[in-house]
Write a structure and sequence with these properties.
197 residues; mainly alpha; single chain
C-alpha cells in the first residue's frame, strides 16, 4: 500500500506527518491545546494562578516547539479570562542567533575558538538574554498609545517607587538598542519613575 492509498483508506485529506516543525504544521495548528497534549504538559505549564519558570530540553523532533505552542495557547486563554492576573510568557527557544552573538563577543574578547567562547557562558548570560527578549515588549505595552498604554502606565504608577525605578532601569539596560535612548525619557515621564522632573 502506498502513502496516498493509506491516506485514502483512512479518510485523510492531507498528510498529518508532512511538517517537520510544529510551527509550520497545519494539522497541529488546528488542534485545540486541550485536545491532545504531551503527558507532562500540565506539569510544565504549572499553575497559572502562581506562574513559575519551566525549562524543557529534548532532542530534535521530540515535541519542544509543539509544547511551547500549546503553552502559548493556554496562557493566551488564561490572560483573556483573567485580565487582572495575566501571566507573562517568555519563549526563550531560538538560541542559535543569541549564541552566535555571544561567541562573537567572546572571540572579540580573546576566546581562541567556539568551544572556549562557549566555556565562558554563565547563567547570568542566559538571564541577560531573557531580559533582552522580554523588555522591549513590556516597554512597548507601557508606551502604547491609547487607553491600553495609559492603563498599564497607571498600574505601574500605582506601584511602589522601587518597581518603577526597576522598570526604568530594565528599559535602559535591555530595551532594543536602536530605540532605547529615545524611549527612556518617555517611559520615565509616563510611569513617573523616581528622578522624573
Amino acid at each position: 500500500m502506498n502513502v496516498s492509498r493509506f491516506f485514502e483508506h483512512w479518510g485523510l485529506s492531507e498528510n498529518p506527518f508532512a511538517a517537520e516543525e510544529a510551527r509550520h504544521d497545519a494539522v497541529f495548528a488546528r488542534l485545540d491545546a486541550g485536545a491532545a497534549t504531551h503527558p507532562d504538559f500540565e506539569k510544565v505549564l504549572g499553575d497559572l494562578e502562581r506562574p513559575a519558570s519551566s525549562i524543557v530540553f529534548g532532542e530534535k523532533g521530540s515535541g519542544k516547539t509543539a509544547l511551547r505552542l500549546q503553552i502559548e495557547q493556554r496562557v493566551g486563554a488564561w490572560n483573556a479570562a483573567h485580565p487582572d492576573r495575566r501571566a507573562l510568557l517568555i519563549a526563550y527557544d531560538d538560541l542559535n542567533p543569541w549564541l552566535d552573538r555571544f561567541v562573537a563577543r567572546m572571540r572579540a574578547e580573546g576566546a581562541k575558538n567556539t568551544d572556549e567562547a562557549l566555556g565562558r557562558l554563565r547563567l547570568s548570560d542566559h538571564m541577560d538574554a531573557i531580559l533582552a527578549l522580554a523588555t522591549p515588549g513590556l516597554v512597548d505595552r507601557a508606551l502604547a498609545p491609547g487607553s491600553e498604554g495609559r492603563q498599564r502606565a497607571r498600574a505601574l504608577r500605582a506601584g511602589p517607587p522601587e518597581t518603577r525605578a526597576g522598570f526604568a532601569l530594565l528599559q535602559a539596560c535591555y530595551d532594543d538598542p536602536d530605540r532605547a535612548p529615545a524611549r527612556t525619557a518617555r517611559l520615565v515621564r509616563r510611569i513617573k519613575a523616581p528622578g522624573d522632573r
